Amino acid sequence: MSGMLLLIRASFFLDAPVRAAIVQMEGSNWDQSSQKSIVGCISRYGDWPELMGLGLLGFFIARKRGNSKWQRLFLIAMVASTLAGTLVNTMRLTTGRTRPRVSPAATQGWYGPYANRAWYIGKSEYNSFPSGHTATAIAFATIIFFGSPCWGILSLLLAVAIASSRVLLGAHHPSDVVAAILIAFTVAWLVWKYHDRVPGRYWERLLGRGSGVVE
Predict the structure, then answer these.
(1) Are 121 and 139 in contact (CB under 8 A)?
(2) Neighbour tally for 93: CB within 10 Å
(3) Does pLDDT of 214 surpass 60?
(4) What is the pLDDT of residue 205?
(5) Crossing angle for the helix pair 2-26 and 174-195, nearest 10 degrees?
(6) Which residue has the higher pLDDT, 102 or 210?
(7) How far is the C-alpha of 188 from the C-alpha of 148, rounded, in Å?
(8) CA–CA separation, 58 vs 176, rounded Å?
(9) pLDDT at position 3, please?
(10) Are residues 159 and 144 in contact, defined by beta-carbon separation less than 8 angstroms?
(11) Which residue has the higher pLDDT, 175 or 198?
């Protein structure tokens, strides 16, 4: 736990230089560029609803093929993703941290749930820390990696692309993403360890008897 906190704390030193480098790289035509459209697409389709849709699609394909291992993996991935997203989104609703893109219209800082006689809970531009997109994507991909390293590497690369898109769009600071990654990995690891303790008979009831549950 202390190691995680140190990593998160160290990541705050990346925020200013990384944001400055991104702004310089993107240039003045970024908003009208095809690159931003691509990055925006990655960000948009990397959110929780789309991940759940992907998980359900994968589950039903695996079910049709009688592959109980992948049925379990997709179900566990959806659970881990949902738990990580719920935890992170609850946190970010109360931290009141400004998103990078609000500058210079608003002063960067941590406003908490209430400041200056105003509530900041639910105000998107003040709900930056940690990154919800990153948490849900990383937790989902980590479960896939635990169950199938080859496909898991691809899943993690896609999750990293989603996390990177949030930084490039000015929706999150690097420290928002680092914190979300560490939280998501911890949640995924705990879910994975717990699922090993679930007796096979419960999986048979969930997936259907004769499904050939793979331990």
Answers:
(1) no
(2) 16
(3) no
(4) 66
(5) 130
(6) 102
(7) 14
(8) 29
(9) 80
(10) no
(11) 175
